[in-house]
Design brief:
Layout lengths: L2 E7 L5 E7 L3 H10 L3 E7 L11 H5 L4 H16 L4 H11 L3 H15 L4 H6 L7 H13 L2 H58 L5 H34 L3 H13 L3 H22 L4 H11 L3 H4 L5 H6 L5 H4 L7 H13 L2 H57 L1
Amino acid sequence: MPNYKYKAMSETGAPVSGVVAAADEAQAMQLLAARGLIPQSVRAGGSDAAEGGGGGLALLQTVKPQELILFTKQVRTMVHAGISIVNVFRIMEQQAENPLMRRTVSAVVQDLKQGATLYDAFSRHPKVFNELYCAMLRAGEISGNLVNVFDRLIYLIDHEYKVRKQIVSALTYPTIVLVMLFGAFLFLLTFVVPKFAMLFESANIDLPLPTEICIAMYKGLVAYWPLMLLTVVGVVGATSLYVRTPPGRLHKDRLLLALPLVGPVFQKGAMSRFASIFGLLQSSGVSVLASLDIISRTIGNAAVSRVFDGLGEKLREGRGISAPLRGSDYFPPMVVNMIAVGEESGNLEEMLSEVAAHYDYEVEYQVGRMAEMIGPLLMVALSAVVGFFALAIFMPMWDLTKMAH
């Protein structure tokens, strides 16, 4: 169905613009009138109201976790106060500072006025509200307890933001050191080595192996730097495109989980996310099969997500959750055993909460341990680079000194 870009006036006289999907211009006018809008202009073209507008800049717009947390808290407060859902999101539309959020909430308001459910209205905007967020809203609508669902969403978004922030902060220091290490290597190779190379060649002395290696690397860099640059850009570009494909994402996530020091952090983070999401979905009344399907698409790691493939069929056979997870490489025995106890005792939600709390601590501990171990390793690497160039420069200098005497 084609899109029609429109400009209209709301019931209060405020100007409104956006995009509506309709069979033709006449139907677009009817849809706008049904929303209580007075059409001023309607023309073919445009993209989704939540993600269009602003041209290419709209593609770069995002909603940060902090903004989503604040949005959810404000909605929860107003719903708890008894304000109608449509009026809640009208107020949120007026208060939104993020352009993408404002357009999204505006589209949600229009859908709600047409009789759409919260799940339907929110699920049309996956760029802002992921599948898990929408599934929680659907559970809240079915149970009639939206306030409780918003409380859980606030906890979940905040929890995931903190875990992600811990991992990023732990990787920031080694990344900076590696960049500086590479910069020091290039500086020594391109500015320091050439000056001494000219001196050593004019002295006509036998050069030690480190010096010969440095001079060969310098000459290769000068002669082939365009080819090297193109190769690096090509490899980075091809890798970036590949990891966006399903097989590439799977290989990347498997590699991350297999890396020493870093791998355990990602694995424990995935376990924390799994237990948190699963527990919240169970406490919200979502069925086990539906919960696992949602987790498979929202856990954020393709390798761990693959474990859930075919799990629904095994559940229908009455094998439970813990038994199929036992053979997985990514689910530790503690997680599997806690789930098994929860299944047998009927307290799965409580066990998952315990697992989430444990792995929150594990992530924090592992991040600290990784930072402690990476620091000395990077210092050893930096010392090795500087030491190699020092040998390459001072060994011939020592030979020159002996010749002078």
